[in-house]
Design goal:
Elements: E1 8-9, E2 14-16, H1 23-30, H2 35-47, E3 59-61
Antiparallel strand pairs: 1-2, 2-3
């Protein structure tokens, strides 16, 4: 997860992807129930078919 920059969680339940982030790291850092699988399911349309291809600046729903 992000350290020392402005990316990260926001009060509205979203996460801005930073350089070097992964779904596993984001799910662990934000304590998502269901882990990265749930995070991917909720954001499948934004992420696409490959959960490893998240990009810095993408905004993910933590729902």
């Amino acid at each position: 997860a992000n350290k020392g920059d402005d990316s990260g969680t926001s009060p509205v339940g979203h996460y801005t992807v930073g350089a070097g982030d992964s779904l596993i790291g984001i799910a662990d850092a934000t304590h998502i129930d269901g882990g990265w699988h749930h995070l991917y399911d909720v954001n499948h349309q934004a992420i696409g078919d490959n959960p490893n291809l998240i990009k810095p600046g993408q905004i993910l729903n933590l729902g």
